[in-house]
Protein: Chemokine-like factor isoform X9
Amino acid sequence: METQSQLKPSLWPFCFSVKGHVKMLRLVLTVTSMILFIIAQAPEPYIVITGFEATVIFFFIILYILRLDQMMKWLFWPLLDIINSVVTTLFMIIISVLALMPETTTLIILGGTDTPR
Structure:
């Protein structure tokens, strides 16, 4: 007979995987960029887009921790991860370029160059 620990899926495999570390690092870098934009009083679109990206990354982390990707097999999760990464990269490159405009401050530049690419 199986023990209780064998029946219950563990929440930790994702947290200790390479994929988990990359997603958490991405979340930390995005939140750091948002904090730098807030401190520098950057234009609101910079803060909103980085906040949106941080929220999406957070929900993907929760999704993988709760193993919902294995429950909903009708979605192709690697493709969703790739699309999310491409959209995030495009948004962050645009924000990084806009942050380098002449009217920016040092903290806005740091927020714009601290994003993952």
Observations:
- The mean pLDDT is 77.
- The helical segments are 4-7, 12-15, 18-39, 44-65, 68-71, 77-99, 106-113.
- Residues 77-99 form the longest helix (23 residues).
